[in-house]
Design goal:
heterotrimer, A mainly alpha (295), B alpha/beta (261), C mainly alpha (367), A: mainly alpha, ABC transporter involved in vitamin B12 uptake, BtuC, two-stranded antiparallel sheet, C: 367 residues, mainly alpha, 2 strands, 67% helix, ATP binding (chain B), nucleotide-binding (chain B)
Chain lengths: 295, 261, 367
């Protein structure tokens, strides 16, 4: 039983990481109709930022970890901001070109990181308590997983509050449901686009900072590996739906974890792709997506 | 609103007909029990205020949108629910309210694609496109007819708005359609260009003998061209008949008659 | 045939001849190639560049001409590659039966894969192709069906026919690659000049319009995609021969994106443009790491050295610049120059579609 709980929690932790990327990507696509292939690189870059903060300490304290997380969030946001203003905005209206430019940007950033820091993984020192475990129902749950799940939960609540209570949240929700209306809103559109892109970047940044705690290390390719799974989460959950992304992240993370442990190590990845193909064939708009978007 | 008008059975064959067509989308009853017969070779204009369902009727008659209930017949064949390309190959062509062209291609190319549509088969399509093959000839003829034949290598994006409407017409001709649905052909056309376009449509209708259904707002264009006028209001066809009858009709007058130019 | 048509054919023929005699040229080109031109190492680099050109041309057919953007090309190239090796290694089949069987299976995969993916449009289609490519990549990385896992699988001893085996026969392999790109180019060039090819371009411009004037758009898209992916598998076959085996580097999103980059870089909707982009990409990819350790580069300050040593950095930046400022790709530079030249000679009959479009199209050679 305790092993099962461990596997589930592990899966939830993985799902939380996917969700952080996927949530941002989902809203970005829903509002801007841009599928960003660059956010994986944003995650890696932010991970490196947190590494640069933490690497000078052998065992960093909690405030230092917090600082690293703040730095990674800001890094993600800053890079996303530059990308949106310089690359995405000039191509407004040309969705294919916007997608391709994010592909190019991701490529450039990853190459840059590999050039500066090498392609291998760099270990990120963590506070002692993070490597410890807490006993829950007899299972030794790693604290890093709990931190991930906890923060992801905070993010979910935060996103819901922002979307339902703030003015920009209203614009975003309206725009996601009816993108034609967004153009009618005029000037606010530009700011909403930038805001949403940067928010996705900050979420990727948080993911980058936390990925270090989950995996123990950071490499230039980490974000891209997660990006693929996040896309799959997006499709299964439904493009443009945060709740869909949440459900799909949980389902994917847990089933991947379960399959890898109980069936055959490595089969989890295959299962994920099978689920994706099944979704595309049976219900292409995903669990909670809108039908017109994909067919 | 009065009951649906008696739809006279016209002499000659019926080229296009809609029977008891209803269209409901998201709870909105866009077309309400519309029946209309279009005789072969006649010119029917459809008028009515914005939102009356005119474009939706065109969409249903051209099989772009399947009706919620009711049937569409083309030359006596039931075409309800067929894929649009099949209906196009059976001789039905339409133009769009906003010009829907291949902007990055030349005029000749636009017309040629339309000309090829009718007979195209994947099997035989793997023949080279030659300058003097019959398909290209048909395309050139269609362009000449609308007055765009002189420089067919221009890109469609280089045309003025009025010229684009002409190109739309040329494509319908090149397609070899014998039933033509025109959705607001005068939309956005400048006052100076209207008479020329009207003449063109008239020539196409008379000389080529095309059955024409036209949705329009410009009343004087309608009165100039139409042999019969159908009036739509709130999704229903409230009157249909020759122009002088329609003008005198009280029901039509109390309903919005469309903007006079 | 018009004058400019004859010129184009002549230039193309000359290029093929020049490429064909390269294995007889014993000249060194500095660090550009690992040795003199006709050394096995250099010939292999050139062969890989030619195979990449062929693969890019096949993607251009469905992406540049029909408007179907696919992130799944690595699936088809990879399948052709792996199937060739695995089937040829089977003692009951051998190379002579393995290759044709691999091609037959590739056609089936192309049909099934595209029939499924084309049920979706736009982003959905892209994601479907991505999903299938990833599925395949995962399968070969885990070694399903004898695909060897991370190290891949090579031709067993004696499987490859003699003329294609061994370092000394690299020139034959090179000629095979040259033949591949010529065949692929000719097939695609002929196809885009047919009625079907014109319909494909109509679909790219305005799929709704195409449907409404009487074309079964799905059928035409299936034709484009199936032909494109089958030819891609053929490139995979030759790739296996050039490399002596198959490995996961040719599967997965990374390779698919590379092919897309090649096409956009060189010029989509222009067949030789795609080939140009591919040749450039593959050259930088293969040679930049050694070039960057040369004296010229190590002398540069580190801030320049790091980006210059990373092919993906240069290629990615070029890609971004092309998308922002020159959507027609590198080919559009050349086409713009020739248009200026031909427009000066007014009065000469033009055999192409005229006009200077924002994104360059292949002039329809009607002769």
């Amino acid at each position: 039983m305790s092993t099962f709980l461990l596997i589930i929690i592990s899966g939830l932790g993985l799902g939380s990481l996917y969700f952080l990327l996927a949530a941002g990507l989902s809203v970005i696509f829903g509002l801007m109709r841009v599928l960003s292939f660059a956010h994986g690189a944003f995650l890696s870059a932010s991970g490196f930022a947190s590494w640069m903060v933490l690497r000078s300490f052998e065992t960093p304290s909690t405030p230092q970890l917090l600082l690293a997380l703040v730095v990674s969030v800001l890094t993600g946001g800053a890079v996303a901001y530059l990308a949106e203003v310089l690359l995405v905005r000039p191509l407004k209206g040309k969705e294919l070109e916007q997608l391709l430019v994010t592909v190019g940007l991701g490529m450039v950033l990853v190459a840059l990181m590999a050039g500066i820091w090498g392609p291998d993984e760099h270990l990120i020192p963590r506070p002692v308590w993070l490597t410890d475990t807490t006993s829950i129902a007899g299972a030794p749950i790693s604290n890093s997983r709990l931190l991930l799940i906890g923060l992801a939960g905070v993010v979910v609540v935060g996103i819901h509050l922002i979307l339902s209570r703030t003015r920009y949240g209203l614009i975003i929700r309206a725009g996601v449901e009816n993108s034609a209306m967004v153009s009618a809103l005029g000037i606010n559109v530009k700011r909403a686009f930038t805001l949403v892109f940067v928010a996705g970047g900050m979420l990727a940044g948080l993911g980058g900072g936390l990925a270090g705690t989950y995996y123990g290390g950071i490499s230039p390719f980490l974000g891209d590996g997660m990006l693929i799974f996040s896309f799959i989460v997006l499709i299964i959950g439904g493009l443009g739906s945060i709740n869909g992304a949440l459900i799909a992240s949980v389902v994917l993370g847990v089933s991947q974890s379960v399959a890898n442990y109980y069936v055959l190590n490595g089969i989890g990845d295959v299962l994920v792709v099978v689920l994706l193909v099944a979704t595309l064939l049976v219900r292409p708009q995903g669990l909670l997506g809108q039908k017109e978007r994909l067919i | 609103m009065t009951a649906a008008p008696a739809n006279e059975v016209l002499p000659g064959s019926v080229a296009l007909s809609g029977r008891a067509v209803n269209l409901v989308i998201d709870g909105h009853h866009i077309l309400v029990d519309v029946s209309v017969d279009v005789a072969a070779g006649e010119f029917l204009a459809i008028i009515g205020p914005n939102g009356a369902g005119k474009t939706s009727l065109i969409n249903v008659l051209s099989v772009a949108t399947p009706p919620t209930s009711g049937k569409v017949h083309l030359h006596g064949r039931d075409v309800t629910g067929l894929p649009p390309h099949r209906v196009a190959r059976s001789g039905l062509g339409r133009t769009f309210q906003t010009s829907n062209l291949f902007l990055g291609r030349s005029l000749l190319e636009n017309a040629r694609l339309a000309a090829n549509g009718r007979d195209s088969r994947l099997r035989t399509g793997f023949r080279r496109v030659l300058k003097d093959d019959p398909v290209t000839e048909r395309a050139r003829e269609a362009l000449d007819l609308v007055g765009l034949g002189r420089r067919p290598d221009r890109l469609a994006s280089e045309l003025s708005h009025g010229e684009r409407r002409k190109l739309e017409l040329a494509m319908v001709l090149a397609q070899g359609a014998n039933v033509i649905l025109l959705d607001e052909p005068m939309a956005g056309v400048s006052v100076d260009d209207v008479p020329e376009l009207v003449e063109l449509i008239r020539r196409v209708h008379r000389e080529q003998g095309k059955t024409t259904v036209m949705v329009e707002h410009h009343m004087h264009v309608v009165l100039d061209l139409a042999e019969r006028i159908g009036v739509m209001h709130h999704g229903a066809m409230i009157a249909i008949g020759p122009p002088d009858e329609i003008i005198a009709n009280d029901v039509v007058q109390t309903a919005y008659m469309g903007e006079p130019l | 045939m018009t004058r400019s048509g004859a010129l184009r054919y002549g230039a193309a023929g000359l290029l093929v001849v020049v490429l064909a005699v390269l294995p007889f040229v014993h000249r060194s080109v500095g660090g550009l190639l690992p040795g003199p031109i006709n050394s096995p190492g250099s010939l292999q680099v050139l062969a890989l560049m030619l195979v990449a050109a062929a693969a890019a041309i096949t993607l251009d057919l469905m992406f540049g001409y029909t408007g179907l953007m696919s992130f799944g090309h690595s699936l088809y190239v990879g399948f052709g590659c792996y199937a060739t090796v695995i089937l040829s290694n089977n003692p009951k089949l051998g190379f002579a039966l393995g290759v044709p069987l691999a091609m037959v299976l590739s056609v089936v995969v192309a049909l099934v894969g595209n029939a499924a993916a084309l049920r979706l449009t736009g982003i959905g289609f892209i994601m479907a192709t991505l999903a299938m490519a990833q599925g395949f990549a995962i399968a070969v990385e885990r070694g399903f069906l004898g695909s060897g896992g991370e190290v891949g699988v090579t031709f067993a001893r004696g499987v490859l026919p003699d003329p294609l085996r061994g370092v000394l026969n690299t020139r034959n392999v090179y000629w095979l690659a040259l033949a591949l790109v010529v065949v692929v180019y000719v097939i695609c060039a002929l196809l885009v000049r047919t009625h079907v090819g014109h319909v494909w371009q109509g679909i790219r411009e305005n799929p709704l319009r195409t449907k409404v004037i009487g074309y079964n758009v799905y059928a035409y898209q299936m034709a484009a995609a199936t032909i494109s992916c089958t030819l891609a598998a053929m490139c995979g076959v030759v790739f296996a021969i050039v490399m002596g085996g198959a490995n996961p580097g040719i599967a997965g999103l990374h390779y698919s994106l590379a092919v897309v980059l090649m096409v956009v870089l060189g010029g989509r909707g222009v067949l030789w443009g795609a080939a140009l982009g591919a040749v450039l990409y593959q050259f930088l990819n293969l040679r930049l790491p050694s070039l960057s350790s040369s004296d010229i580069v190590t002398g540069l300050p580190e801030i320049l050295q790091i980006p210059l040593s990373q092919p993906n950095f240069l290629l990615g930046v070029a890609f971004i610049l092309i998308i922002l400022f020159m959507p027609g790709g590198l080919a559009s530079i050349f086409t713009r120059l020739t248009r200026r030249a031909t427009s000066k000679r007014a009065g000469e009959p033009r055999d192409d579609d005229g006009g200077v479009p924002a994104t360059t199209r292949e002039p329809n050679l009607v002769s």
